[in-house]
Structures are given as C-alpha cells and as structure tokens.
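Handout, section B. The chain below has 311 residues.
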Amino acid sequence: MTKIAVLVPCYNESLTIEKVVKDYKRALPEADIFVYDNNSVDHTDEIACKAGAVVRYEYRQGKGNVIRSMFRDIEADCYLMIDGDDTYPAENAKEMCDLVLQGKADMVIGDRLSSTYFEENKRPFHNFGNEIVRRSINVLWRPKKQILDVMTGYRAFSPLFVKSFPILSKGFEIETEMTIHALDKNLLIQSIPVQYRDRPAGSESKLNTYTDGMKVLLTIFNLYRDYQPLKFFGIIALLLAAVSLVLFVPVFSDFLKTGLVPRFPTLIVSTVMMLSAFLSLVCGLILDTNAKNSRKYFEVQMNIIRTLLKK
C-alpha cells in the first residue's frame, strides 16, 4: 500500500485542529496524519490526538524548525503539508498527492492567489506582500512556467524532494526557500488552484506582517546571491562601472581640452569604483563556478537518494 503522510505543523490551533484532522482523514483515509506541536499552550496536542492524529513535538520555535524535523523523521511515498488553521479545504488533497505518486511532480503547489485568497484574506498588507514575493521570484529566477503562489502552506512533495532539501530557515521563510530550491535544482513543479478561506473567528495568525515579511525578502536576497552569484555580483559590477564612468567622463573631457586634471579626487573615486566593479565581477565568476559544482554534487546525491528510495 502506498503510504501518504499528512504533515500538520501547529502552534496554538485548538479551535481548528480537530476539524483539520477529521477532514483530511475523510479525504485521504489511507494516510497517516502527523501533527507536530510547536510549544502550544492551548491543548492543541491533546485535541489532535483525540481526533486520530499521530502527535509529535518540536521544541525549537518556528515553522522551519518543525518542517525540518518532519522531513527528517517521517518516511513516506508522498508528503502533504498543510496548516492547522483550517484555511485550506481537503478537496484538493487527493489530486495533489496523485500528481506526486504518479511521478508527475516533485512539488505540487496549492495556489491560493488564483482563486479566493484576495477576497477571503482580510489583511491587505499580506495581499501586497504575496504579490511582491511572487513577482520577485518570477523576475529573478525566470521559470519557464511562472510560480503563481510562493507563500502557500498547502503543498505535496515527493520523497526525492523531502530527502534532498537542505532546510536553513527557522520560521515562515520556509515556503519561499522550498520554492527557490525546486527552481534552482530543476525539480518538477506543478500548481493547482485551491480555494482559500480566512481563519474562523477567534483564530489568530502567527505571521507578523512586517517582521516575517522582511525575513522572506531577505531570504530571497540571500538565496539569489547564493544560487545565482554571477548575476548578483554582475549587477553590482554594472552599477559600480556605470557610476565610475559618469564620474570619469567629465574629468577626461577636461583633460582632453586643457591637458590638466583639475578634479583629481573625482578621478581617484572613479578609479576605485571601476576597480571595485572588476572585483565584484571576479567574485561572481568564482562563486558561479562553486555554485555549478554544487549543482553537480547535488545531481550525484539525487541519484544516490533515488537508489536508496527504491530499495
């Protein structure tokens, strides 16, 4: 029997966790539902256990820490990740899992933004933030098929993705990191539009709009530097070179006319900036070689993981 693991990271979701567990039990009766409690103080773990979930604990605070433990601990043929706040309906669960089980996807994204998210979500800055993140990923990585929802917590994964994904994030940046990892490593990505419903009354989001939003944008910045160093440092080199030329041209023009360099400090600054541009370009070239070697090693590791999974 094919084993499906439903992964539910939870922190103080006592109002909704019972419904979430029961809904996904009906949608995927063959699945095991794992609720990882992240230091809840409202008896989320007890309610989940009574509803029929396997309850485990992660004492390091943060969604990224929870997902790290889930991916390390659990063995399955398909992993379905959902939130415990009852914002994602279970109707799409089987379709998402089937895409993974049939080998058509390494990661299936439950796309909220193409359906009801902007109508249901009552936090306008969240809407704005989702748009910024989505556009940033598509502009910087230029996937053949655009990523429609980067921040969704509703995803299905293959064992190949789960066992090869190096989790660095500790908090809500984890979804962004997943998306960028899949794009950089050329893994199979599929998107399915899913209905989104806002949290029920009394249930509070754990996401801080400004703090976590800045962390997500910083994650995109850092991963772009790490995964695309030639482009990253190439852009910096172009900017420095452009400023250098703007400063140099008037000085050089004066020299051609008079044979003198009256603005010597400007010439020095221009020269330093051009040298910095060359240094930035050299850094990009060296780091790009390292990034390519890293991708080669990753492909070898993928072959090893694939062989181990077949045993």
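Note. The radius of gyration is 24 Å. Compare this with the example in section A.
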